[in-house]
Amino acid sequence: MQTLGEFIIEQQKDHQDASGELSKLLSSIKLATKIVNREVSKAGLVDILGGVGGENIQGEEQQKLDVFANKHFIKALQARGVVCGIASEENEDFIDCNTEDSKQAKYVVSMDPLDGSSNIDVNVSIGTIFSIYKRITPVGSPVELKDFLQKGIHQVAAGYVLYGASSMLVYSTGNGVNGFTFDPSIGTVYLSHPNIKTPEKGKIYSINEGNFNSFEQPIKSYIDYCKQEDKSSLRPYSARYIGSLVADFHRNLIKGGVYLYPSTSKAPNGKLRLLYECNPLAFLVEQAGGMATNGKERILEIQPTELHQRVPFVIGSKKMVEKVSAMH
User: Fold this and answer.
1) Per-residue pLDDT tens for 288-319?
2) What is the mean pLDDT of residues 46-56?
3) Same domain (yes/no): 87, 161
4) Residues 26 and 111 reside in one and the same domain
5) Domain count, the chain
C-alpha cells in the first residue's frame, strides 16, 4: 500500500510547482492531523471535552478541542517556514508568520481547524478543512489581506480530515481527489480511496429541516420535491443530516447526494464561511465531478470581500445541485 508521503513525492514530479514547498506544506498538515487525531481519539479520557468559556470571532462558543486544534495546526504550518500567512476561522485576523523563511514562502493557508464543534461532546464525527493559495503580494514582503481574499478557482490545493470510525485525509492539488486512511497501529496514513468520483446523482439530501419555515421558497420547493414519490428519479430521497459539515459532505461525496445550508430569515447570507468551508469543499467536489453553488452562482467564482464572509451553500452530485439551481 502507498503511504501519503510516497504519494505526495510521486505527485510532485508531475505538478507544475516541483520546488517541494507544496509537499512540505502538505506534510505539515499531515503532522497536525495526527496530533489532533490523537486527542480526539482519547477525548473522553482526558480533560479535552467541553467549552473554554469564551467565543470565537463567529460568536460561537469555543470548545477545548477547537483551541487545541487551532494551536497545533498553526504551530505545524509555521514550523517549516513554507507558508507566509494563515487565516483561521478561530482568529479574528490573519496571521503573518513573519520569519525569514516564511517571508520567502509563496503560499497562504485558510482553515477551519475543527469543524463540527457542537458534536465534540457527544462523540460524533468531526473534521478539519483547509485551503491553499499562492500569495498575490511579492515574495519577501509582508503578507496582506488580499493574499487571502482570492476566488476559489485560484486554489492550489484543498482538503479535509474526517475524525470518525476511521480517520481519513482527503485532498486534491487540482488533479483529481484522493483519500487516505490513518492506520493507528503504526501511525501511518495509506492511500485507500484513489481517484474519488462522486455519482452524478444520488438518493440523499442533507439539510437541517428544523429551519424549514425560515427558508426561501426555492429551498422549500426542493425539499418537497425530495419527498415526492417518483420511481423514475428514485424519489423519495433519504434525509441524512449529521450536523458536521465534513461528515455530511464525505458521505455524499462517496454515495451521491446533496448538502444544503441555505440562507434563512435569521441568517440571510447563510452560515457557512466562504474561505474556510465552502471554497475548499467546492474545489474538491468539482475535481470529483460534482458541483457547488450558492443557489444561483458557482461558489468558486464568488469574489471574497472579508475573511469571515458567509454564503448560502449547496454542494454535491451534479444533477441534484442543478435541480436546486433550476428552482431558484
Assistant:
1) 999 999 999 999 999 999 999 999 999 999 99
2) 54
3) yes
4) yes
5) 2
What CATH number is attached to the domain comprising 156?
3.30.540.10
Domain boundary among 133, 165, 193: 193
What percent of the chain shows pLDDT beyond 70? 91
Are 62 and 127 in the same domain? yes
Mean pLDDT for 84-107 is 89
130, 176, 202, 239 from 73: Cα distances, Å: 10, 25, 34, 34
Predicted model pTM? 0.93
Residue 26 domain boundaries? 4-193
Q: CATH number of the domain that 251 lies in?
A: 3.40.190.80
